[in-house]
Amino acid sequence: MLSVDARNLQIQAEPPGTSVAAPSVESLYNGSLGNGCFIGVGFTVSRAKSLFSIASLAPINLVVADKNNDSLSTISDLPKHYRSDSSRRDTWNMETFDFRETFESLVRNARDARQRSHKFENPDMHLSIAAHTGVPYMELRRERPFVFDEHTHPLHATLAETLRVDCLTELHKHHESDILEPLLDPMKRRIFHATYDSFVTNFILPLCHSLAIAKDVLHIYSSDKIYYKYQAFPNIRIVRPGEKPSRPTCGLADGYSIASLQFHVPLTPAVGSNALYTESYQGREDWHPLNAKSFGIGYMFDGTQCLHFDLGNTTEQTRVALDFRVMIYRDESQQATALMNPRINDFPTIQQMQDRFLTMDPKYYDEAVIDPSRSDIVVKTNLSDQLHEPSVLLGAPFAA
Questions:
Q1: What is the pTM of this model?
Q2: pLDDT of amino acid 162
Q3: Is the bond into 348 cis (omega within 30 degrees of 0)?
Q4: How does the average pLDDT of the chain come out, rounded?
């Protein structure tokens, strides 16, 4: 049984048969109080602000696998259906337990693809997949949930308005090509696109910068300009009721740079089979969902190296989420003058950032810079301040 020690911000496994009166993990992430406050695991965050400092928060692992329980050790041991009427994520419908034949081979292929991509990124690497060789800013890759003000950044509302629907969870009631057609019109998608760009530049990039300082990737007194490349338009992921499980994959195998940090932001409730599943660390295969019961919850995780997939939506609601990536770097002149900095290797080289998407479409990513001499204000390097057109590499209609 799982219990939560809020004082130490840890999830602990109790011996079988032990009775523990503790709330479920999801309820801790979904509890809300008046006055605009949000309750997380052992901390309170004001929702009146679009950015909160996470320097004082201990790392939070959403699911801790019991080492004495092998039932969740591999994807082949996941049941095919999740009990949608259960509020506990550790309750599985074992009557429909039959995953081995289909998914184990897919995971094996995904492992092989990841290993080949690692060797392509670093041909001299002869170590195991768990090696950190050539991987930038390892301290930033641990899975972390975050909360944001959905009124300041109304991603779900502006997307629903763009698609001309009342509720995103009911997209499955509309014809796919018709409902997503407005995204092809620059004027119709403009408000949503601007909302997304504001969310990244005003919340996500400062969040990354704050975390990098807290983890000593960046020095708090450094005067170096720090550049951020981020997807100019997000991948809009839509998973309708009854859709089959997706193939496990990772960003490296899909052609993204090893320098990428991945963000997953559900725009609808995502729990159980309706959530994205991932592992907490590459090769660990401790599969767990990135649950979000309400608006304003997102995840930063190492989707570049960690395998992730959709289990198969057995609920009656469509899941809509945004996936996008961010890369952090110094310019070459600063890298040349910072050789005495022992943490300089935490940043990717220009060659490492040249992934398939940047090579094929330079406007796949937009760019911003944080200059400490200007009070850490995020400034876009695109002087025209115009939004890039969504890249054709996203797929039509934009990775649905």
A1: 0.75
A2: 95
A3: no
A4: 74
